[in-house]
Specification:
There is one protein chain. The chain contains 4 helices and 18 strands. By secondary structure, the chain is mainly beta. It has one domain (48-132, 139-323): Outer membrane protein transport protein (OMPP1/FadL/TodX) (Porin), CATH 2.40.160. It is globular.
Length: 324
């Protein structure tokens, strides 16, 4: 039990978005004497894209909401809510005719925790190979795309605290060049005991440096910490509403904030909305979902729409999930 308490305290300390420079502004000149940006370049950037419709519909404010298969990548500590066997499949029509296809499975063993696996496939539109000698094209097509395949383990540490860890193999292909790496994710979900308030934390894409054309690049490391609570009713009631807010702290971009809400009607229809603060193009998002039980099996269908302003067409996400 002491070990569990120490882990929780450590994660709570990490959740506080205060750096040494913020506590001691005068140290900034010493630590960064040349005024260099502390933002580091990253690779495997497809890992930063939200591919689940329910999460996107809530403006990515989902770390403390995670309650099953929906959060297997976002916060897999919520996998402990899976009854026995869960699945999820998704399709995202992304920017400039690119697309994501995702899938995941999870099995709750009971006392030994939950085992799961997931994959994310990102494909780009066909590209014609060009060279300096043949700028109009060589007649060949460029093979390109990204892939992430992972395994996850989640465990209910106490009646109020669950934790998870996952390992993913990540690969990017562009023509003859292939870049591969291993990333590690760790997360937790804790019920505070005050009404339905819970705190979620997730550190994603821990990995080593990569070298691309003699330049050093890192995994897109991000730390999410958020809170969620039912502001009206309770989950399972005829009508309930969940509010969620979280911060996202990156190594390759500035800190960002996500706000979201989810309204359930008769535990059958869900309406969602979210807003993102300090993002380059994304602002608001909306989503909806249907879920029900058929022959004792739960099934859900979610859809979301995210606004990208005038820069890009809004991406459309569809997700089918359920449990047996």
């Amino acid at each position: 039990m002491k070990f569990v308490v120490h882990i929780v305290l450590m994660m709570l300390v990490l959740a506080v978005p205060v750096s040494a420079q913020e506590l001691f502004p005068e140290a900034e000149e010493i630590l960064n004497p040349e005024g260099r940006s502390k933002i580091k370049p990253s690779t495997f950037n497809f890992l930063k894209t939200t591919t689940h419709a329910r999460i996107a519909g809530m403006g990515d404010a989902f770390t403390a909401v995670s309650d099953g298969m929906d959060g297997i990548v976002w916060n897999p500590a919520g996998l402990t809510k899976v009854d026995k066997f869960g699945y999820s499949f998704g399709y995202t029509q992304w920017l400039i005719n690119s697309r994501f296809v995702t899938g995941s499975l999870a099995y709750n063993t009971g006392r030994w925790g939950v085992l799961g696996m997931s994959f994310v496939s990102f494909s780009l539109p066909d590209m014609i190979e060009t060279t300096t000698q043949q700028p109009d094209g060589t007649g060949n097509m460029v093979d390109s795309g990204d892939l992430a395949v992972g395994v996850v383990y989640a465990y209910q540490l106490t009646d109020k605290l669950s934790a998870a860890a996952s390992l993913r193999f990540v690969q990017s292909v562009l023509g003859p060049e292939t870049l591969s790496a291993i990333s590690v994710n760790v997360s937790s979900l804790m019920y505070t005991g005050f009404r339905s308030l819970r705190i979620g934390m997730n550190m994603k894409n821990l990995g080593g440096e990569q070298e691309i054309v003699s330049e050093k690049s890192e995994m897109p490391l991000v730390f999410h910490t958020g809170v969620a609570m039912e502001v009206f009713g309770n989950l399972g009631d005829p009508v309930s509403m969940t509010g969620s807010f979280e911060g996202a702290f990156f190594t390759d971009r500035e800190q960002r904030w996500n706000l979201g809400g989810e309204l359930w009607i008769q535990n059958l229809i869900a309406l969602r909305a979210g807003y993102k603060f300090k993002y380059d193009a994304e602002t608001w998002s909306v989503g909806a979902g249907l879920k029900g039980k058929f022959s004792g099996r739960s099934i859900a269908l979610d859809v979301s729409y995210s606004n990208f302003g005038d820069l890009f067409d809004a991406p459309l996400r569809l997700t089918l999930s359920g449990s047996l």
